[in-house]
Design goal:
With 422 residues, the protein is α/β, with parallel strands linked by helices. It has two domains: 11-183 and 351-399, 3-Layer(aba) Sandwich (Rossmann fold), CATH 3.40.50.1480; 191-346, 3-Layer(aba) Sandwich (Rossmann fold). The protein has 16 helices and 15 strands. It has helices at residues 14-25, 29-41, 57-68, 85-93, 107-119, 131-139, 155-166, 181-204, 220-231, 243-251, 259-265, 305-311, 343-346, 353-372, 386-399, 409-415, and strands spanning 48-53, 72-77, 98-100, 124-127, 149-152, 174-176, 212-216, 235-239, 255-256, 268-271, 291-295, 314-320, 323-327, 333-337, 381-382. An eight-stranded mixed beta sheet has the order 9-8-7-10-11-14-13-12, with helices on both faces. A seven-stranded parallel beta sheet has the order 3-2-1-4-5-6-15, sandwiched between helices. α1 packs across α4 (85-93). The longest helix is centred in the middle third of the chain and has 24 residues, at 181-204. The protein is globular. The protein starts with 13 loop residues before the first helix and ends in a 7-residue tail after the last helix.
Length: 422
């Protein structure tokens, strides 16, 4: 394979990035414990790994753990606007990890880095949206036999990969890290909830109290954001296609209606579905003058930006950092935040380190599990083993100073039997 080198914006940012990484590390005790064990045991020694993830301080600490375990790692960005350039520089300069990521990189550069990650020759890959896996399948079919397994971090990516499995297109195993309890119950709900609010406020400086906030999708990410918006005094409206999730939203005390109706009344719209054109062409003319539109799902396709561009008689880019103004024929203004990309990473710093501690601890241990059991998997999407999930949760509780009960022998026997009743 080709010798791959780092491609970053500015190596002089490395010292600032190192401080940011170390600050995040203070709030990632579970991953730190794993890194210390990996340093001693070297479970990834001599193994090439490639990761297509958001290049943030928290991701840097995952990269450090994998490198401590002996992995030869290449890291590229999973979103053109989510890279922290100082972190990318620090990983390359201070930690000797190869990185291909530059904030604001264009489409060609983004895929140049993904191709570099593949040409690195990994046996394990990590994805945040399945771009790495899909590119391997479509453009490097000769490599599929070399991949032991891939890890997928996002709801969107798992949806894509399960579709590949159903179609018989998936050619190597994938572990759905996103579906682990220590990931989606906390990262998606609390992490996305808080960081989405953070990104919207940084971009727009709005007051949430009193605003009608339309939340498209009531999965774990959607309910996390909805709960935080509600806590800030917003009138939350949820749009859904799933009757179970819509029922949950209604019983959680928020209003539920179709997007066609919500578009007429919302002040702020945020998509968190993993699907395409949730806010479509016909919704924009229905919106109020000054409506704010953003996305916190993985891809910017959730908003039909192409149609918004075409129907606007005028676009005023950068009316504020991360805010573009679109003026429609009737003079109505629509404000698009963060170019429709992940608002929590475009305009803010992504999830807090505390919650990413669990997600990346699970990611690291799932990678170790894949390497230890190489050859025993089929080309399908697997869940994270339950013992990994529970170990991460127990250690997280321990680091928080929280103790829980343990089943007695009698209780354990009762739960595992059927002979004893009333």
């Amino acid at each position: 394979m080709t010798e791959i080198v780092s491609d970053i914006r500015d190596a002089s940012l490395a010292d600032a990035g190192k401080r940011r990484i170390e600050w995040a590390d203070n709030d990632m005790p579970v991953l730190r414990r794993i890194r210390e064990r990996f340093e001693k045991e070297k479970p990834m020694a001599g193994k090439k790994m490639s990761a297509c993830l958001h290049v943030t301080a928290e991701t840097a600490n995952l990269a450090r753990a994998l490198a401590a375990g002996g992995a030869d790692l290449y890291l590229c960005a999973s979103n053109p606007l989510s890279t922290q350039d100082d972190v990318a520089a620090a990983l390359s300069v201070h930690y000797g990890i190869k990185v291909g990521a530059i904030t604001g990189e264009d489409h060609d550069t983004y895929y140049k880095h993904i191709h570099a990650a593949i040409q690195h020759g990994p046996v394990v890959t990590m994805d945040d949206g399945a771009d790495l896996v899909s590119t391997i399948h479509s453009e490097y079919p000769q490599m599929v036999g070399e991949i032991v397994a891939s890890m997928e971090e996002t709801t969107t990516g798992v949806i894509r990969l399960k579709a590949m499995e159903r179609d018989g297109a998936l050619k190597f195993p994938v572990i759905a890290v996103n579906d682990a309890d220590t990931k989606h119950l906390f990262d998606n709900r609390y992490g996305t909830g808080q960081s989405t609010v953070d990104g919207i406020i940084r971009a727009s400086d709005i007051l949430f109290a009193g605003k009608k906030v339309v939340v498209a999708g009531y999965g774990w990410c959607g309910r996390g954001f909805a709960n935080r918006a509600k806590g800030l005094g917003s009138q939350v409206i949820v749009t859904e296609v799933d009757p179970i999730r819509a029922l949950e939203a209604a019983l959680d005390g928020v209003e539920v209606m179709p997007m066609d109706e919500a578009a007429k009344v919302g002040d702020l719209f945020c998509t968190l579905t993993g699907d395409k054109h949730v806010i479509a062409k016909h919704h924009f003319p229905l919106m109020k003058d000054g409506a704010l539109v953003c996305n916190s799902g993985h891809f910017n396709v959730e908003i039909d930006i192409e149609s918004l561009e075409a129907m606007a008689k005028q676009k005023n880019a950068g009316v504020r950092n991360f805010v573009d103004e679109y003026v429609l024929d009737d003079g109505k203004r629509i404000f698009l935040l963060g170019e429709g990309r992940l608002i929590n990473l475009t305009a803010a710093e992504g999830h807090p380190a505390c919650v990413m501690d669990m997600s990346f601890a699970t990611q690291a241990l799932a990678s170790e599990h894949a390497l230890k059991n190489a050859g025993s998997f089929k080309a399908k999407v697997y869940e994270v083993p339950k013992d990994i999930d529970e170990w991460v949760a127990r250690l997280k509780l321990e680091t928080m100073g929280v103790a829980i009960d343990t089943l007695t022998e009698e209780q354990a026997k009762y739960l595992s039997s059927w002979t004893e009743g009333t």
